[in-house]
Amino acid sequence: MKSFVTLIAAEDPTQTHHWLLPETAEIIYGGLATVIVVTLLVKFAGPMVKKAMADRTAKIQSEIDNARESKTVADAEASKIRAALGDISAERSRILSDAEKQAEALLIEGRARLDAEVRDMEAKAEADIAAAAARSGDELRQKSPVCQRRLQSVPSHLLSTTVPSKISSNHSFHPWEQPDERRTH
Questions:
Q1: Is the dihedral of CA 167, 171, 176, 177 positive or negative?
Q2: Which residues have a Cβ under 8 Å from the Cβ of 136 and sit 6 or more positions away?
Q3: How many Å is the Cα radius of gyration of the chain?
Q4: How many CB atoms are located within 10 Å of the residue 145 CB?
Q5: Which of 10, 35, 69, 173 is deepest in the core (most CB within 10 A)?
Q6: What residue segments make up the domains of the chain, in order of their start?
Q7: What's the first-to-final CA gap in the chain, in angstroms?
Q8: What burial class does residue 110 get, using C-beta atoms within 10 Å of its C-beta: 0-12 exposed, 13-18 middle, 19+ buried?
Q9: 7-11, 27-31, 86-90, 165-169 — which is least confidently predicted?
Q10: 183 CB-near residues (< 8 Å, 6+ apart)
């Protein structure tokens, strides 16, 4: 039994000849497998990796070139916009000054037209008042002899077309009112 225990202890697979290095056969077979795998990768995968890297480099370079061109175009557009903005400011001030001139001309024209309308209306009102005064004078002459006497005492120039101006200048002559007894006697 002693030899069996010694045999088991001597054949322990967890025990190696060195605490850091594996067995010699493993080093040989593992080294050969690593060389074969690396050689195959370099031979077959190497060109694909080189091609992918070259394509990536070309793509990045084309993006950089496109970005440069886009920046140049954008700078040109920005300068055009700045120039147009200056033109817009000048155009805006020109349009505003034209609008102010037109507004002033319209205002002057409107005032002149209103003044003419007011003069026409005043002339029409004076004519209406004169016609009404003459009409009322005629009616009073026809209706009453007392009124005829009173109208005869009123100067004739007051019954003419100047009656509206006399009325508008605050004279107290009104043919339809009773004259003051003191003035008639």
A1: positive
A2: 175, 176
A3: 62
A4: 8
A5: 173
A6: 21-184
A7: 181
A8: exposed
A9: 165-169
A10: none
